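Input chain follows. Return structure tokens only.
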Amino acid sequence: MHMGGVLATSCWFLLISVATPTTLLPTCPLECLCLSQTQVLCNSGGLTEVPLKLLPPTVEHLSLTRNNFPTIKSDSFAGLRHLKKLSLDGNNISLIKPFAFRGLPKLRDLSIQHTPLETVSPFAFAGLQNISTIYLSYNKIKKVESYAFAGTVSLKQLVLAHNPISKLETNAFTGMTEIDKIVLPSGIRTIEPDCFNGLDYLGHLQLAFMDLRGLKRGIFRGLTNVNYLSIQESDLGNIEGDAFDEMAFVKSLNILNNKIDSIQWLNFTWEQHVVHLRFQGNHILEIPRSETLLIEVEKLTVIQNHFPCDCHIHSLLDGPLANGSMINFISKNYCISPLEVNGMPMNNIDIDSIGRCQEEVTRGNLEASKDTNNSAERLTSFCSYLNLMLYFLKLLRIT
């Protein structure tokens, strides 16, 4: 082909590519930067809705940060079946509607951070069957409503740090079955019963800096196969009866550095299979009665706590928290009251000089009296038996 023909052909192909770009180049929203058919950046583009129809259907990583999305509608990303990572950080999101992320079978990582979102609504994340990590930090979330994460059976990590959450509602985490880690913020004031119900496996959960009125029955119901659970640096109020009754198979349960007004009942049975209970650094304002404590665990650690060193101390040392060794217990725990011994190691005070409480003395006297009466009754019965035997012997001699 001569030189003129080559130039003509080149010009013809150039003309075609300019005149019909959509036939040769993939589509890309004007507000976005399509680095490839699998990676798209739509950051600070002023978008008011997801440009779903203009995105490459093969996109795997999609960033939609710092746009203007007040609402994430249901099925907002339907059709992006190859999407693996999605970021919606920095948007003005105030509502996530039910099933907003339905139709994303390959999505693994989802980030919604630094938004004004206040409520995680029911079924907001439902349908994300293969999701691995959800980041919801640095929002304005005040509550997580029931079934918000329904169906997220593969979720391994949920991060809710740095949110003003005050209440965890019943079934807030229902739908997660085997999760490695839940990261919650400080400042929680209410945990409703059955909040964690349905978690078949939980790797790590730390409940810290809470301000509760009490730990109530059913809070931990349904928690099974827990690797590490820590309740720490919180005002726990009153630990009410049966607070821990319905959790099982816990490797490490840690109650650390809390203020505890009173313990109405603390119950751990062998059937719950708690391996290690660590009760450390707590300030207990009222000593529980020994009969209200049942602690059947493989390993018990009770150290660096502060207890009242009053007349109830004898009940404490006779109970299961002392773990069978009064000497070891008083060497590793402290007094919180009376004021003159506050902060003093227990082994620095003369415990024998502290009289028992009147109710303990009365109870002891009643038990002793009961034992005496029982002994008297047994003796009377024995004497009656002897008299009866003597009577029969006399009858035998007469005959």
